[in-house]
Amino acid sequence: MNGSTALIKSLVAETLNTAKLDESVEVVIAPPAVYLEKTRATANKNIGVAAQNVYYKKSGAYTGEISPEILKDVNVEWVILGHSERREYFKESNEFVGEKTAFAIENGLKVIPCVGEKLEHREAGKTMEIIFAQLKAIADNVKDWTNIVIAYEPVWAIGTGKVATPQQAQEVHAQIRKWLADNVSAEVAENTRIIYGGSVNAKNAGDLSKEKDIDGFLVGGASLKPEFVNIINARL
């Protein structure tokens, strides 16, 4: 819940649009809902735009919610679902996130579903148990994984300044990929991008990006700053 029309001008129009970005990196930015249309109109065509949430009905008496049809009407083609803050503050269950992911995919959106564990889960050795349950709820509902990018975000590393080490992140990413191979298909495991989120910044992005199964980043606070360009270009 950050941003302003001034930020769209300074960050999108004057920074992202004019910077030389790594052409092999797909860039998607996710402003609050009221800024989606202006962001889409401002950003270069090679930059995608995502909503931070969407509901699983086409229309109707669901005050305060947004449908895939509404997003597509303003040329928004991506959505983030199941972010840890949605799960924590708004009590979104694994099943609810799975249903929303499937509905969004079936209605033409590309989806970034988020999975991740809290500190108490990690300390109790339950990291993968938690993440596998989150993945299963998605797999139980989704038939086509073509337009899904999984984001792994250890909840204890979001906005805390704590970052999973490249080795910790790689270990989880590798386990997610293995779970996909074992429970969905080898093809989905190989082709699905798995991105890391959790206090990513320009200083740690380079080391994280070297890991075999880290295919990109879900960037939080650092995406509001000019260093976002350096994160995009971390592999250059």
The shape, in one word, is globular
* Fraction in helix: 40-55%
Secondary-structure element order, N to C = HEHEHEHHEHHEHHEHEH
Average pLDDT rating: 97
Describe this structure in words.
With 236 residues, the protein is of the alpha/beta class. The protein has a single domain, classed as Aldolase class I (TIM Barrel). Helices cover 41% and strands 12% of the residues. It contains eleven helices and seven strands. The chain has helices spanning 5-16, 36-42, 68-73, 84-89, 94-106, 119-123, 127-139, 166-183, 186-191, 205-209, 228-232, and strands at 27-29, 47-51, 78-81, 110-115, 149-152, 193-197, 217-218. A seven-stranded parallel sheet has the order 1-2-3-4-5-6-7. The radius of gyration is 17 Å and the shape is globular.
Summarize the structure.
With 236 residues, the protein is α/β, with parallel strands linked by helices. The chain has helices spanning 5-16, 36-42, 68-73, 84-89, 94-106, 119-123, 127-139, 166-183, 186-191, 205-209, 228-232; strands spanning 27-29, 47-51, 78-81, 110-115, 149-152, 193-197, 217-218.
